[in-house]
Amino acid sequence: MVNVVWFKRDLRLQDHAPLHLALQKRQPVLLLYIFEPMLLNDSHYSERHFRFIKESLDGLQKQLEAYHTQILIVEGKAEDVFKTIHQQLSIKSVFSHQETGIQITFNRDKSLKLLFKSLSIQWKEFVNNGVIRGLQNRKTWINSWENFMSQDLLPFSASQGQFVNQNQINSLKGQFNLVNLSTERNLNFQKGGRPTALRYLRGFLQDRYPNYQKNISKPLLARKSCSRLSPYIAWGVLSMREVIRASIEIEDKTNHKQALSQFQSRLRWQAHFIQKFEMEYRAEFQNFNSAFNVLEKPYNKALVDAWKKGETGFPLVDASMRCLIQTGYLNFRMRALLVSFFTHLLWQTWQEASSHLASLFLDFEPGIHYPQLQMQAGTTGIHTLRIYNPVKNSYKHDPDGEFILTYLPSLRAIPLEFVHEPWRLTAMEQSMYNFELGKDYPRPIIEMDTTRQHASDSIWKIIQSQRSKMEGKKILKRHTLRGSH
Ligand SMILES: Cc1cc2nc3c(=O)[nH]c(=O)nc-3n(C[C@H](O)[C@H](O)[C@H](O)COP(=O)(O)OP(=O)(O)OC[C@H]3O[C@@H](n4cnc5c(N)ncnc54)[C@H](O)[C@@H]3O)c2cc1C
């Protein structure tokens, strides 16, 4: 009989409760990762995610060489994979982290639960980054989160004999579609794997964090001044506890307390948002606040396509989208701007934006993505409504146009004074700069002032409605933390 440790969004050996506990049992341990076709083909995911996962798994395989074992990495439906392993080796228990995922992973977990029950396999699921399953409200949540984060990191220590032996792994391999981990390195994207994750963590806490707060909203400078830890946290290459611990270690020595404390508050937001989604998983499809269901937003393919390609005619919006397409990363403010532009100024639904953005964010984390998407779209009814002005944000956060010109090189032909609003160029100026609006760069696809006013009027009407207030109260009751309101 064997125990299986099933890796999902927890691609590390250190501070890994399922692995740590499995190694304390008598049964040999089989390490498993499954590339599930339902996720390979899901619109939230794209090649960039699978490349990152493969890079991370490849690093784990190298770490495991010293223990003469390896992770069995297969492609297949999870139920079929477990059935086959059970037939071959007889599984006693499966150890894994709880997953706050999308509907299809939730459904997969329900089917697996039934399967494991029918095969008398125990499924031991562990709390992931302090997110608690089955909570009805958040009154005691912050205490449990703090308690979880203050516990010691779980070391990885094993001996060769604790793992299923290589012959058994080899014979299992014959039963599956194996996955080749070789990938073509794309230097535009952050690389998966523990050594790179630790480099980002050390680099941030040794050099980069002092300008965190100052540059967090600036699209170009944030790329250096923010931690850039998000993909490593989202895919579990680092545990949140490790990151928090590392940040606490420099608290006494730092001369930049404010910047460090701002960063630490973002670390707390991670589980805060995921917990919200864990309790409201319907938020993948439905408005948090049902009062907003009456909003009518007719689908407009031309507008949606222009936004997806970064061809709206608003330079900061287009540069943000193209940057995301090219690099998989965007700072918080520009993510919020993209969503606000789409849902308010283009007057399209957040549902229409969700999987496009998810497939582009290398750090896609359903539990942050959906609550943030809805917060920026204004469909929670409990947060301040922010309809970002793409032009004002452009002057404020990219005054020298460096970010815009990096991702929209065609605008390099015109003087800086027009880069934020190229539609202000007269026909004569266009010909003087050998630049044609509509050909070298799109004309604005909407009239901003009109659509802004329309969005603001329509949303405020709902915010002030009795139904929105009642729904808002219910949401607050379930999600307000002790000590906040
Ligand atoms: C529409 C939208 C979608 C988003 N989708 C994701 C997503 O899928 N995955 C994701 O990790 N972040 C998401 N964010 C939050 C945020 O933009 C990113 O976490 C951040 O920009 C990542 O960069 P960083 O690692 O340098 O962050 P830092 O500012 O250095 O923060 C460190 C860590 O704290 C957490 N964090 C930071 N900001 C937030 C936040 N606002 N909410 C929750 N946790 C936060 C992340 O784990 C991040 O890695 C989204 C924001 C918006 C507006």
UniProtKB/TrEMBL annotation:
Keywords: Chromophore, FAD, Flavoprotein, Lyase. It comes from the Bacteria. One of its GO terms (biological process) is response to stress. Residues 1-131 form the Photolyase/cryptochrome alpha/beta domain. PROSITE patterns: DNA_PHOTOLYASES_1_1, PHR_CRY_ALPHA_BETA. This is Deoxyribodipyrimidine photolyase. Transmembrane segments: none annotated. Its cofactor is FAD; (6R)-5,10-methylene-5,6,7,8-tetrahydrofolate. InterPro entries: Crypto/Photolyase_FAD-like_sf, Crypto/Photolyase_N_sf, Cryptochr/Photolyase_FAD-bd, Cryptochrome/DNA_photolyase_1, DNA_photolyase_1_CS_C, DNA_photolyase_N, Rossmann-like_a/b/a_fold. Binds 1 FAD per subunit. Belongs to the DNA photolyase family. GO terms for molecular function: deoxyribodipyrimidine photo-lyase activity; DNA binding; FAD binding. FAD binds at Y212, F263. It comes from Psychroflexus gondwanensis ACAM 44.
